[in-house]
Here is the input.
Amino acid sequence: MDPQKALVIFSGGQDSTTCLGWAKNRYPQVEALSIDYGQKHRVELTQAAKIARRLGVAHHVLEAEFFGRMVKSALTHPGDVGGAHQDHPGLPASFVPNRNAFFLTLAHAWAQTAGAGVLVMGVSQTDYSGYPDCREEFITAMGRALNLGAEVDIVMEAPLLHLTKAQTFALAQKEGVLAEVLELSHTCYNGVETMNPWGRGCGDCPACGLRRKGWEEYTAAL
Amino acid sequence: MDPQKALVIFSGGQDSTTCLGWAKNRYPQVEALSIDYGQKHRVELTQAAKIARRLGVAHHVLEAEFFGRMVKSALTHPGDVGGAHQDHPGLPASFVPNRNAFFLTLAHAWAQTAGAGVLVMGVSQTDYSGYPDCREEFITAMGRALNLGAEVDIVMEAPLLHLTKAQTFALAQKEGVLAEVLELSHTCYNGVETMNPWGRGCGDCPACGLRRKGWEEYTAAL
Here is the structure.
């Protein structure tokens, strides 16, 4: 594995676009990996391809739609993304069980194939959606397990882990990808492509709510 | 999750067939999950379906062939299953990077969908093929990470973990599935279906070698 080569788990949203900029400014070789897990808002994959092209990064897409069919989530099946999860009463309807474990397992395998010594992921446990698989404890445990299982030592980087959404906007600006975040990145659970000052989206779903609030805090502090 | 419902990760080989018998004798509800990961010896999936039918267990197959294409392994790409792995010099050519992480992540997600509180896997670190993802340390770390990521408490059972292959034959006999192991289960990496006293297979590949040796030890001690 090459410690100068980073693979970014890239959904095409605000967070992973910011991570792509962050990685580009730190590693000589950067590639992006998107996973089609049967998300209803698959427009994010179209946007991911556009962003990768604009930033000149090789972009791979894994076709794993079966995953969305086998789990229960309002992101992969009909239903309101607002309320509580049908199986996990303490978690939001948009929680996709084992999604980040699935992403990390696939990206960690891809990194071995590609010889990438670094894996970058845009999770945050600060202004997050209440998903337990966005917490540092999970990312650390998963990274350790995956390295044990393959006898490798791939470094996990989660540069947004302790940032608020407002700080993530500031980081995007610092890393030179704020334009990509605002014009191209897609976070909206409803797949709505309306342009707003804070980016594309419906403005009503939990993902848009977090993003808009972060933008207001970011711009208020400028 | 129902602690009386077990999901068995079921390849159709000797070990997971033994686990299916073991689980059937311990849990009121048992289901089996097979994963088509693009293995060359996919005849194991046909055998898995036959064994599940004979044992009266609901059997599900996930179509995830993309996984075999993205990793390097002599089990999913042309090449001799004998020598060393092309990327991992200390491991055998048949090692499939992150395969057990992939299986566990999917089965753990499926268990949440199915409400199964127990996950059973036929890994062994005793008479094993030198795969780091068959060791107890990995299984424990992975189980902990997956439970953390989904805020659940699914119990991982690996009844063969400390058994030799000879002891696994004895366990199959004790659990009442030795006939299924010998007549139907498929372990051979080369996908050869020749019948032998110790079961189906070519007799030459590493998987057949382990199985034959175990059978000889088991029968010598009878």
Observations:
- Chain B is about 40% helix and 15% strand.
